[in-house]
Amino acid sequence: MPLDEREMRILYCLTRWPSARSKDISSMLGLRFSSFSSIKRKLVEEGYIRPFRVLNPLAMGFDIRYVEYGMLKPDVEENRLWDDLKRAVQENSSIYVMESDGTSYFFHLLCPDHARMGNILLTCGPRDRNIEAGAAHGQGQFYDEVGTNRLLNLFDFSGIMKYQFGTEVTTSRRALFPDDRPHFPHVDPIGLSPSLRRAIPFLVRQPLLSDSEIGYRLGCSRQKIGQSRLQLERKGVLISCNSVDTTTLGMAVRGHFTVEFDREADPGRIREYEKMLMGALKPVFWFSSNVRSTFLFDLLDLADYKGFVDRLYGLMEDPPVRHIVGTPIAKVSTMDICLHHDEDGCKTVGDIVSDGKTPQSIKGNR
């Protein structure tokens, strides 16, 4: 059932400001708190939005990046292929995002060091995985980036809602609803206080628990948990997200894009282009470096996808762009995100922070 204008505005606010309190959002929208809470519960229960928290991968030192696009061979056994890939990733304590619709695929890998990146690619390189390289014009795209990555957006879908439906909510209450979500810097989470480290596993693994429920389990007040959560978010260690299932809004295609910048371009021009990209489109799952930006954006169909690519080139006159590579993937697809999970006793990113030890494996679920 389509959402009405009020429900769309609430959905926009939830994904735009995931850390904001419900009473503040309802007040900003001029709604009774009970009405807001009822609609929010509906959006979660009917699958429009999924609340979760992740640890900033760059804060954990996962800043060596590999991105691959491609087309699967017709006879490839997709399940076995991804099982082998996930096993190699877990054995090398790395994290990834993978998506496939049975024809095209996208793979984004983050590793803490060159050795583990090399192990994964040696074990599960394109040739060994029986993947026919090539997404755009038959050419595979493989990138290895080191040390200069910035995480500009992670699962904030408000830009897509504005682009597709014109939905936008503005406010002058910048303290509660900032214009831009912060960039997420490299930090040393092992140096956090013991109380913050204790709170992280609960905040990450059980995002729907209230501050009071977490406080009860840890033997402290809800105010202490709330303060800890805010401190972790401000430090850039913990990222709160409300991911929107855009298939419920009629979007059938997910575009994965890499904007390759001109290596001779002035860095200021690149930052200006990124600023315009954020203002006009605000991509999702957006990593950027000095040489390229990688992000995703959900679109209605293939015609919408092609129009989006044209817009990327037309954001500014004489853009500092060498080329743009992308692959459309049908939203009826498999998406696997391994950012943290605890299963079968495996170490998780949360455990790295809570006990200060190096992980043996990080296991992901769908």
Unreliable segments of 5+ consecutive residues: 130-139, 340-366
The overall pLDDT, averaged over residues, is 77
What is the CA-CA span between the terminal residues? Answer: 26 Å
The major β-sheet equals:
6 strands, antiparallel
> Whole-number radius of gyration?
20 Å
**Tally of strands:** 13
Shape label: globular
Order of helix and strand elements from N to C terminus: HHHEEHEEHEEEHHHHEEHEEHEEH
By oligomeric state, this entry counts as single chain
Structural class category: alpha+beta
Number of helices: 12
- How much strand content do the residues show? 15-25%
Instruction: Estimate the helix proportion, in percent.
Output: 25-40%
Overview of the structural elements:
- The protein is an alpha+beta fold and 366 residues long.
- It is built from twelve helices and 13 strands.
- The longest helix has 14 residues, at 78-91.
- It starts with a helix and ends in an 11-residue tail after the last helix.
- 40% of the residues are buried.
- Residues 130-139 and 340-366 have low confidence and may be disordered.
List keywords for this structure.
13 strands, 366 residues, six-stranded antiparallel β-sheet, 36% helix, globular, five-stranded antiparallel β-sheet, alpha+beta, 12 helices
Blueprint (SSEs and pairs):
Elements: H1 5-16, H2 22-29, H3 33-45, E1 49-55, E2 64-72, H4 78-91, E3 95-100, E4 104-111, H5 114-124, E5 131-133, E6 141-146, E7 150-153, H6 158-165, H7 194-205, H8 211-218, H9 222-234, E8 238-244, E9 253-261, H10 267-280, E10 284-288, E11 292-299, H11 302-313, E12 321-330, E13 334-338, H12 349-355
Antiparallel strand pairs: 1-8, 2-4, 2-5, 2-6, 3-4, 3-13, 7-10, 9-11, 9-12, 10-11
